Write a sequence for this structure.
C-alpha cells in the first residue's frame, strides 16, 4: 500500500513537473525574442562622408550625439554649437556624429563632397560626418528606424520632425533621449548628460 502510494505520488509529481517546465520553456522564447530584437547603436555600420564603412561598434564606451544635419536650413548655424560641444567634451569620451539628410524641404541638396566642403569652410567641422541618408519615409536608413521606433530601441517612439534633431546615446550604445531640432546643442539637458550631472 505504501509502495503504491509512493509510486502514485512520484507519477503525479513527475507529470506536474513536466507540465510546469514545458510551460516555462514555452514562455521564455517569447521573452528572449523581445530582448533580442532590441539593438544598440553598436549593431550598425554606416558609410562616412568619404564613402568608407564606419563601424559604430568602434564607439563603445563613448556618449554619442547623433544629429541629422542640413546646409540650407534656418537651423544650419547649429553646426557652430555642435563643433564647440564636440571640442569641449571630446576628451571626455563624447562624440557628435552628423548625418546629412535632404528630407525636409530639400535643404541638403548637395553631394557628400559639397556637404563636407561647406561644413569645413563655414563652420570648421571636425566631428565625424557620415554619407547623406534618408531619416524619414519609406527609404529611411536602418539606423534611423532604430532611433525612432521603440520596438527597435526599447526606449521611445519619436519621428524625426526636422533638421538638427538630436539623439542621445549612452556608452553601451543605448538610446537615452531625444532633443528636438530648435533646442540648442549646448542646452542644459545635453551638457548635464555629457557631464553626468
Amino acid at each position: 500500500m505504501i509502495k503504491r502510494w509512493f509510486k502514485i505520488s512520484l507519477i503525479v509529481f513527475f507529470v506536474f513537473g513536466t507540465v510546469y517546465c514545458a510551460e516555462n520553456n514555452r514562455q521564455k522564447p517569447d521573452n528572449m525574442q523581445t530582448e533580442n530584437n532590441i539593438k544598440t547603436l553598436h549593431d550598425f555600420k554606416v558609410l562616412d562622408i568619404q564613402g568608407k564603412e564606419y563601424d559604430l561598434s568602434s564607439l563603445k564606451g563613448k556618449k554619442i550625439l547623433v544629429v541629422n544635419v542640413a546646409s540650407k536650413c534656418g537651423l544650419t548655424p547649429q553646426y557652430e554649437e555642435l563643433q564647440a560641444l564636440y571640442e569641449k567634451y571630446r576628451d571626455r569620451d563624447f562624440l557628435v556624429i552628423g548625418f546629412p539628410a535632404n528630407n525636409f524641404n530639400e535643404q541638403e541638396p548637395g553631394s557628400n563632397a559639397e556637404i563636407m566642403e561647406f561644413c569645413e569652410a563655414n563652420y570648421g567641422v571636425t566631428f565625424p560626418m557620415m554619407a547623406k541618408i534618408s531619416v524619414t519615409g519609406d527609404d529611411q536608413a536602418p539606423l534611423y528606424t532604430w532611433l525612432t521606433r521603440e520596438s527597435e530601441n526599447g526606449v521611445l517612439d519619436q519621428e524625426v520632425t526636422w533638421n538638427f534633431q538630436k539623439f542621445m546615446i549612452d556608452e553601451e550604445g543605448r538610446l537615452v533621449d531625444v532633443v528636438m531640432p530648435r533646442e540648442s546643442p549646448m542646452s542644459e539637458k545635453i551638457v548635464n548628460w555629457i557631464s553626468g550631472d
